[in-house]
UniProtKB/TrEMBL annotation:
Transmembrane segments: none annotated. Pfam families: Acyl-CoA_dh_1 (PF00441), Acyl-CoA_dh_M (PF02770), Acyl-CoA_dh_N (PF02771). One of its GO terms (cellular component) is mitochondrion. Residues 131-224 form the Acyl-CoA oxidase/dehydrogenase middle domain. The gene is ACAD8. The lineage of its organism: Eukaryota, Metazoa, Chordata, Craniata, Vertebrata. It comes from Geospiza fortis. Keywords: Branched-chain amino acid catabolism, FAD, Flavoprotein, Oxidoreductase, Transit peptide. Its EC number is 1.3.8.5. The active site is at residue 371. It comes from the Eukaryota. This is Isobutyryl-CoA dehydrogenase, mitochondrial.
């Protein structure tokens, strides 16, 4: 069976511990996520209790240090877990990957007081976090952001807005990039805001093609008073914090794409076996056999690329940033193509919401846009090559 081969290829080269993490995450995805994926999408439910169950398995702060409640796992372990969870619900897993990135930022760049104040409740998912970088006027050009934080005594007065914020309005903690200095990346700092702060408000809930199990809103700051003690790192360090976070975020979102593609290949395999046309199963059609083989091959190639980048990031290698960009570019493009081909193999059934393959297509499409568009990934890779 192809499903047995797919499972084997997904665990090839992993340690026994990593295989166990993968099994736990796959079981959770199959039992706690996949049966509810369509309902969460249709009714736009943010599945808080399910994510808290995932946090009990250590998935709320996967690569956060254990002394503040994290699991202390590697970037490769994290990639394996997010790929597995994404087979159950890509949208929910993608939000969890953003939450994990935020907790890691606080754990890595925060002082001891900040780490102990924020991280334990985030790792348990008692509280949820959102990442606030993109603005209405600055998406790919993040260094030109305009949200300003003026220092007044022991506080910053924050004004501006952020767009397309995953979890916005429903989450508790907001990791916000803002301008405390002059133009360009060196004028950007990072503040941690908490829901309920005066001057913090939210726009309307956006209607999206996919990612419907997580709310998306604008986050608005109107003379919002933020204590200086909520700043991560030094003034001017924000852009560096944001970019380091995004290197991991790109691996995480690529891993979510792998999970969606893996699930879609298995759905296509099952459909080809069951569905008959012209008196025989579609699985007997050589053209469809070849397409299925290509899908599996592209999935394995993308997985190897993502895991290689995850290792480079974990090891702090000099080429980590460009490898993360390559992996995000390749995996999100290839995996969308795999999911789309799986839908095509379903014929008209693939376009019905009764069939999960269409939801994987809708949920995975945005991965080519967020955490840096794939056009920006090409720019990063080309710049690295031409500077070489």
């Amino acid at each position: 069976m192809f499903s047995s081969l797919a499972s084997f290829l997904a665990s090839t080269g992993l340690t026994e511990d990593q295989k166990e993490f993968q099994k736990v995450a796959l079981d959770f995805a199959a039992k706690e996520m996949a049966p509810y994926m369509a309902k969460w999408d249709e009714k736009e439910i943010f599945p808080v209790e399910t994510m808290r169950k995932a946090a009990q398995l250590g998935f709320g702060g996967i690569y956060v240090k254990p002394d503040v409640g994290g699991s202390g796992l590697s970037r490769l372990d994290t990639s394996i877990i997010f790929e597995a969870l994404s087979t159950g619900c890509t949208s929910t897993t993608a939000y969890m990957s953003i939450h994990n990135m935020c907790v890691w930022m606080i754990d890595t760049f925060g002082n001891e007081e900040q780490r102990r104040r924020f991280c334990p409740s985030l790792c348990s998912m008692e509280k949820f976090a959102s990442y606030c970088l993109t603005e209405p006027g600055s998406g790919s050009d993040a260094a030109s952001l305009l949200t300003s934080a003026q220092r007044k005594g022991d506080s910053y007065i924050l004004n501006g807005s952020k767009a397309f914020i995953s979890g916005g309005g429903d989450t508790d903690v907001y990791v916000v990039m803002c301008r405390t200095g002059g133009p360009g990346p060196k004028g950007i700092s990072c503040l941690v805001l908490e829901k309920g702060m005066p001057g913090l408000s939210f726009g309307k809930k956006e209607k999206k093609v996919g990612w419907n199990s997580q709310p998306t809103r604008a986050v608005i700051f109107e003379d919002c008073v933020v204590p200086v003690g909520n700043r991560l790192g030094a003034e001017g360090q924000g852009f560096n914090i944001a970019m380091q976070g995004l290197n991991g975020g790109r691996i995480n979102i690529a891993s979510c794409s792998l999970g969606a593609a893996h699930a879609s290949v298995l759905l296509a395999q099952e459909h080809l076996t069951v569905r008959k046309q012209f008196g025989e199963p579609l699985a007997n059609n050589q053209y469809l056999q070849f397409r299925l083989a290509e899908m599996a091959t592209r999935l394995v190639a993308a997985r190897l690329m993502v895991r290689n980048a995850a290792r480079a990031l974990q090891e702090g290698r000099e080429d980590a940033a460009v490898l993360c960009s390559m992996a995000k570019l390749f995996a999100t493009d290839e995996c969308f193509g795999i999911c789309n081909q799986a839908l095509q193999m379903h014929g008209g059934y693939g376009y019905l919401k009764d069939y999960a393959v269409q939801q994987f297509v809708r949920d995975i499409r945005v991965h080519q846009i967020l955490e840096g568009t794939n056009e920006v990934m090409r720019m990063i890779v080309a710049r690295n090559l031409l500077q070489g």
